[in-house]
Amino acid sequence: MIMRKLLTAGAVCGLLSLLTGGPLAPGASADEPTAHPAPKVELVLDVSGSMRARDIDGESRMSAAKQAFDDVLDSTPPDVQLGIRTLGADYPGNDRKTGCKDTRQLYPVGPLDRTEAKAAVATLAPTGWTPIGPALLAAAADLKGGEGTRRMVLITDGEDTCGPTNPCDVARDIAAQGVDLTIDTLGLIPDASTRNQLSCIAGATGGTYTTVQHRQQLTTKVKQLVGRSDAHTATPVATQGGATCAAAPELRQGLYSDRETFSENRWYRVQVPSGSELRASVSIAADRQVNADYGVLLRGVTMRGREIVRDDEGGTGRTDAVSAGIRYPKPDAASGTPPETVCLQVGNSYSAPASVKTTPGLPVELSIDLVKSPDKPSDVAFLGLGRGWWLLGLLTVTGAVLGLFTGWIARWRLNTGRTV
């Protein structure tokens, strides 16, 4: 009995030290990053009748969008407030006035309940008109309030069918309001007129336009855009790569945009501190007609020209963008060791028919991230306890060992006929 009590006391002591931290557990350190305002994202989905077309990997555009939404909802960062708005989902008739009011918020912008959001999307069926302009205005209202970044992602397979107001003018009016709102557009198997309209909408607010021909491409792009809202560089920063590493601009963590002519190489520099890992990715978009079979190269080299990491990806003309990515961990070094300069080379092997203009160059989007190397334990979080988890773990182990030792002594004394 005595042994059990002592064992229990020791174990409870250790458990309490883990759960409460007691007076010895450090609180949030002053140098921890402060909380950022929650970013807001609304996905605006076209559910008009044309979404019945079965030309995305052998399935309907609507089916591809639903599957993409399931994947995106599963991967949405926890601090992103996400909503979903539809256009053309409810009115199947021919009355233009009624059809052009057919937009509603399917899921409100706020903390995400994945099950509820997925259930709402599952009920959708291609129905009516394509009131893009009214949907943009309504979505802008949905995203009002708060101090975080705001992003709208419009997914459609056609032009606005309502007029006479051009949705590009609507996007310009939204931008003129001075709110921090970016509109990105994705066109599902679009024709030239649709591409022009969606490009204009995106350009009015500093957003991006992407043509989508495959379901996985749709999933990847929407995930990227939703994830970008969680970063604190919501809009790419314009830069210009150098012809050599020595002449290259120095980039910090963030998202950057540039342009490359056909078959060009450009250079950028990043300072990688010891104990950190450089994660870089690049996407180059074919925003005009190009010849089939092309590639994108991203590689990291030292200032002396020694290659340390590389990735190259190819395309065949079926996608509008090709991406490559690299990771380079910098091992821990002695205190005071300066960061290592890594030169990033971004190249492409695009070519085009003689009738295609080569200027301006192809759009380049470069992402730079510096994180603590995965081979070094992080002191940021352990069971959600933050800095100082190692001390709490030590207290727990000490309490458990002390309890076992005390119990063993008590049992030995009982077996030898002694009393405590």
TrEMBL record:
Record carries keyword Membrane: yes
All residue ranges annotated as the VWFA domain in the record: 40-225
Domain of life: Bacteria
Entry keywords, A to Z: Membrane, Signal, Transmembrane, Transmembrane helix
Residues spanning the signal sequence: 1-30
Keyword set includes Ion transport: no
Regions that span the bilayer: 388-410
InterPro entries xref list: CLCR, VWF_A, vWFA_dom_sf
Species this protein is from: Actinacidiphila rubida
Annotated protein name in UniProt: Ca-activated chloride channel family protein
